[in-house]
Structures are given as C-alpha cells and as structure tokens.
Amino acid sequence: MSLQDEMLNYARQAGGAMRTREHRERVVRDFCRFLRQENIQTRHLPDLKIRQIKAYLEHLRGKELELRTMQNSMSALRTVLKAVGRKPFAEHSDLSNRTLGVSGASRNGTHRPVGQELYQQAREGLLRDDPSGGLAAVLSLQWTFGLRSLEGLRAGRGTLKRWLQELRRGKIEVVLGTKGGRPRFVTILDSGEARLAICEALDVLQGTGEEYLVIGRQKTLKSAYDRYHRYLRKHGLRGEFSSHAVRYTWAQDALHHYRESDFSDREALAAVAQDLGHGDGRGRYVKQVYYQRSPVPGQALLPSTDSPGKESADPGSQAEE
User: Which architecture characterizes domain 3-100 according to CATH?
Assistant: First the structure.
C-alpha cells in the first residue's frame, strides 16, 4: 500500500460530514503529490517527519493561499495523523499554527446573504434546465428552512410528509444530512411559505416516482450533490452567493422573527444558532459568521442592543468557541 492509499484510508476512517471528508482527501492527495514532486521517498505514515510537513506548508504559502485555507490543510493532516495513532506528533509544538505562522485568521463569514431577486432568477433557471422541478424544489427547501444543501437533497418522501405534519407545532425536525449526524429542530418563519415548499417537493416526487428530488448520474448522494451545485453555479449561486449563502438569508429573517417575538439580541442569536444546528452556546459565533455581510455592502445587519461586553463575557459562548 502506497503512502497516499494509507493516508486516504485513515482520512476516511476519521469520519465527519461528507464535505469535510472530501476536503480531507483532497489535502492528502495534494500533500502526497508534493512529496513525489520533491522526490521525498516516505512510504508509510509513521515515517513522516516534521520537516516534510513544514516543507508542504511552505509550498502552500508559495501559492499565496488564504490563511484559513492553510489552516484547514494543516488541520486535515493532523486529523489523519491522529487517526493512525500519532496524536503526540500531530500536536507537536513545532506543528502548531502559531509556530508555523498561520494563526489568527478571521472567522468572519465568507458568504453574503442571497437577495430575493437572485433567488428567483436562480429558481427560474433551474426550472428551465430541470422541468421535473427537483433542483428548484431543493433550493426552495433551503430558502424556506435554512437547510444545508445535503439536508435538502436527503429530504425524501417520508421526511417531507413528516415535515408537513410538524408544521402545526411550529418546528420541523431535520434528521438526515445534518452536519455530524446531529438532528435539530428548525423554527417555521412563515407557515404558508413552508407548506408551499414542502408540497412542491412532494408533487415533484409524485411526478418522477423517485425517492429523492435530485438524482445524479451515478445514482449516489455525491453525484446528486455535484449535479445540484453544478446547476446552481450556472445560474448565479456561486462564490460569496453560493447555496450556503441562502442560510445567511434565512438567518437574517430568523433574527427578525425572534426580535418581533420580543427576544433580546442575545436570546435571538442563541435561538438562531440552535435552528442552524450550531447549539445555543454559539450565539457569538453565529453573529460573527452570519451577520457581518449583507446583499448591499455597508448595510448594518445586527445593530447592537446588548452591550458588547455582555456578549463577549458569555461563558457558554466562549466554551463552545
């Protein structure tokens, strides 16, 4: 077994969400390609040296990558090393982000909320390319419930029928496709819009006879995911306005919903964090990621009504961060 095969095996065993595993595997392939290019003859994971990982980081630095990208690459390699039993090596002080000079990157969100016009434009394009309506139905579910794309893609007939029943209690439970396999409840912001989105999806499934809304070429979840995102990019949902940015839009609407229900900003942030699947102790994180940017540059997203000191002093938020 080659070093790359060995590393890929452990990269998969380390688990995580699908996109996390895919990213980890990409880093492994890139790392092994770098070793081959440099004629570094390491054959097995236990033989890796600190200087080789440092050399790879310098290679990444030479490509002028973002700080967060380099941090994520190092994190992926550490995960693989820990999976093979080399935790002390992975956590060696010489391989810390601080020592490597890649610490301190901002965690501000990199997306911008999708406006109504762009959303409608994308939906119309998806309906033209896919008259069955499956692609558009997944986008509508993301828009209406703040779902991740995988959660929308995994919404089969049984899930949709259950959601339709759950509308009466004001929350739906999202189980399949969640990050880390953690089920969560999502608050219904507009019951009429929610019913329309679910019924549209059910009508699509009845018309196609399929179990899921999007079917990829290989009939796998990954091929469905790739097909969905390929068409989203075609119709303008890419970069800072990618499908994940739809969650930013939903987060803004949810914050407004909770404020109208007399929640304080801190309570509203905690509630939105739970709806998005981050946990109630992640209000500060949600504020930093989802409310820093808007469809219109310079537009204020989160006017402060609580003092900044109170927010930063929240022990729950700091522990979760």
Answer: Orthogonal Bundle (1.10)
